[in-house]
Amino acid sequence: MSALRRDPAARRWLVTGAGGMLGRDLQAALAGREVTALTRADLDVTDPAAVEAAVEGHDVVVNCAAWTAVDDAEAAEPAAFAANAVGPALLARACARAGARLVQPSTDYVFAGDATTPYAEDAPVAPRSAYGRTKAAGEWAVRAELPDGHYVVRTAWLYGAHGASFPRTMARLQGQRETLDVVDDQRGQPTWTRDLAERVVAMVDADAPAGTYHATASGETTWHGLAQRVFALLGADPERVRTTTSEAFVRPAPRPAYSVLGHEGWARAGLAPMRAWDEALDEAARTTDLLTPA
């Protein structure tokens, strides 16, 4: 592992893509520390010289810059590859020169989504979409460029207070429609970006071993189950959410039917897995405007 300042509180952090949902929660989780927060407008992660200059002087880099428009990537895979693979490669190379660690968020989309038990961290990747392929390429690049100083952190079904998300959409539609049809044949783990941000900081502070970690909430549900939970939190009748299948919502990029990730990596690092998805959602609803109609 790369050499770092021994006192975690004295480490200098760089957050790229800092204007997004995770980037903003990371800044909150790092309050009181030395943090450089660069938005997409501040730093183009595909510019080698700019990346080199940005990383210099930092101990930890968290790369929240990414192409996340899953469907658009099907028609613009080269552009998605630049953001999701070339950018991480350049950051990892710069981290190697600077002696810094790199946290590279990744996704459940690197898997085929046809499993019936949670995907382990070392399960073979088999992406079925352009987005998944570009994120898998980013993982490979980071491991190759920074073998002893990387954390690939796979997550899924993200929501947060600072951006568009499925729970926020369900809260809005609850007030507009009598009933909603929501798919019940895709399973996953809704994950609060605040929990994810706090886990990333705790992992680095604990000097966890380099490698791949699955940072999703514990438990599992379907989109239908998540929508019903949102309705219940709003005091609405969950039975207004009706079940349907993925065939009713055909999109350019195939969605994984099974996105449940295993959490064995945390035990190996001596850390507990993240809390249950419904517990986190309940707190997010109480403490943020996540479910407040716009």
Automatic annotation (TrEMBL):
What is one GO cellular-component annotation here? cytosol
Name the InterPro entries for this protein.
dTDP_dehydrorham_reduct (IPR005913), NAD(P)-bd_dom_sf (IPR036291), RmlD-like-bd (IPR029903)
Q: Which GO terms describe its molecular function?
A: dTDP-4-dehydrorhamnose reductase activity
Question: Which major enzyme category is it?
Answer: oxidoreductase
Xref: SUPFAM superfamilies: NAD(P)-binding Rossmann-fold domains (SSF51735)
UniProt-listed Pfam families: RmlD_sub_bind
> Chloroplast among the record's keywords?
no
Q: In which pathway does it act?
A: Carbohydrate biosynthesis; dTDP-L-rhamnose biosynthesis
Domain RmlD-like substrate binding: where?
Answer: 13-286
Name a single GO biological process.
dTDP-rhamnose biosynthetic process
Keywords assigned by UniProt? NADP, Oxidoreductase
The enzyme's E.C. designation: 1.1.1.133
Q: Could you tell me which NCBIfam families the record lists for this protein?
A: rmlD
Give a short account of what the protein does.
Catalyzes the reduction of dTDP-6-deoxy-L-lyxo-4-hexulose to yield dTDP-L-rhamnose.
Family, as annotated: Belongs to the dTDP-4-dehydrorhamnose reductase family.
Which named protein is this? dTDP-4-dehydrorhamnose reductase
Q: Which organism is it from?
A: Vallicoccus soli
